[in-house]
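Lab meeting, action items carried over

1. Structure of the three-component assembly. Owner: GW. Status: complete.
Input record:
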Amino acid sequence: MPSFWSAALAIAAKDMKIEWRTKTAFASAIVFAVLVLAVFYFARDPTAVGALDIAPGALWVTFTFAAMLGLNRAFMLESENRAMDGLMLAPISPSAIFVGKFLGNLAFVGVVEAVSLPLFILFYDLPIVGQLPALVGVIAMATVAFVAVGTLLSSMVVRTRFAELMLPILLLPFLIPPIVGAVQLTSRILSGRPLSDLAGWLKLLASFDIIFVILCFFLFEATLEE
Amino acid sequence: MQPVEPALKAHGVTRKFGHRTVLHDVSLAVSGGDFLMLVGHNGAGKTTLIRVLAGLLKPTAGTVQRSGATGMVAHSSMLYDALTARENLAFHGRLHGLNDAALVQRILEQMGLAPHGDRRVATFSRGMVQRLSIGRALLSDPEVLLLDEPFTGLDDAAAVIVREVLQDLEQRRRAVVVATHQLVEVVDLATSVGFLVGGRLAAIEPVAGRDAHAVMARYRELAANA
Amino acid sequence: MTRRDRALVLARRGQVITGIALAGLVGVFIRALVFTPIERTQGPAQKIFYVHAPAAWAALLAFAITGILSLIYLWLKDRKIDSIAAASAEVGLAFSVAMLTTGPIWGKTVWGTWWSWDARLTSTMFIFLLFIGYRVMRGAIVDPSTRARFSAVIGIMGLVLVPFIHMTVYLFRTLHPDPVLLKPSSPSMPGEMLVTLLSSVAVFTLLYVGFVTQRYAIAILRDVREEAASAIS
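Predicted assembly:
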């Protein structure tokens, strides 16, 4: 009997290996991210709207929509050849499957973000010196939030007929608290305001993370059994 | 007489999907050394019964008790096309807490797949996939192996290997349950035969040296009386 | 009594409750239009409030009940609970639409803006979106027990989400106060207006109960018919 973490990590590692081999989802997500960043940059009146004003919103719309492109693939992987049966037959806890998928998704979205962020800084000519750690921290917290909910929802949505459409419909309401928080925090970080200004938003983001990661962890099993 | 606890025992198993009853009051028990052949038309509930016995479906009524691990081989391979044969086996091993490269190699050899160990499953023929799927199920050396139509679409060479595996399991006092309509392949190996008619187990009796024709005649007799 | 008969009795009771509620609604409307004083700053248009606020209340009630029943379903696994939760969600959807249409009409007439992103209004809009998601999800799944389980998951997640949305908008608003400040229900409401409001809330609650009862009865009848159909085939 494997330990909880060795099962979860084995699943995450397997997912990452497969994604690395095919690279299709990565490619789509990154191309999408670049396009969205560019569109936001050009879709404004440069004399009226500064790059710094739309940058936070552009960044977060990019991250979330690019991420949504990839969230479904984690469970679609398990539906070809009914590989999910293999996971269920193994002596592992269903929650280990959730954690494994969650970590795999986190890695996927993390890579997309790591590629988009430098492009974002470049395109929008952002004064990033010294603010990078705080920015990365905020990005990490918000990403954990939407990946946790996205992982849970995709495990259900993958069994329906219109998985690609259903995921955004169900996920978007859950994105409001973390993304609005992330945008507000990003905006203040980029304008160099002290973090004490942001205590309320940080608390919102942190509590959302804790509560939803735990909730999704416990609800996952209900999405599995037949 | 079997003094020991049966490896797998189903009692009064009923399974409905919505309002449709697919299995009705099915009871059976297998112990080490038993080889149960399940016979029935398509739609009689063979696949559902195998899935319930494996634990992938919960019975609507009735119980299934397992005293040991159960492995399953079905029409879908539960394998990942993008991974090699070796990687697939290693992953499933890890799901069972095994981290033994030598064991993986032995299984590949037993299944006649050693020369293809490092090729991706996507390149495999149907026969090779089926053999690898059986190898996957054998990795953890389960007490009970459930097989749903294991001979479908196999060439002769692959079928020979599958038969050898089944014989070996019987010799090692494992329990085997095979649902199939290719009776000729297993009738000489089976110790007992169960007849599924319209979701009910019309009879379960020793094979008693009957050949495939005799068994089919018995099936038709039971189906006519249902 | 067969299951079908019990469902018909339930439907009849629901119709009676709804009938009483509708009569009460007429009474409340008359009271609101004729016997309740006109609000000083907003004028007669303020009276939309007596529909808008109770509709929001009913939507919120429906949402909370769907959420709580979802929790209970995952614990007890009784399919009836899922049917009631789904009935509540459908009725809640209708009330949300009522709220979302009266809100902008009131806003535009009295304050000159169709929408204001205040915490209460925005939260209720998201409740509406969650109801839609719940319904779309249910429509996409054929197997009843899977549908019930997945609906329960969405129900619980939605219930936990709404306070966060409320908080998000509140934080946003304290940082970016709108020039137009909305106070849809002022605690310093004169007695007569409060009575009208409370009567309206009571009537809407009764309406909710009546609708859900009927909708649940219809769900049972549909199920009975499906059972009969699959028994024949």
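2. GW to write a short summary for the group page. Key points so far: Chain A has a mean pLDDT of 90. Chain A has one domain: 4-223.
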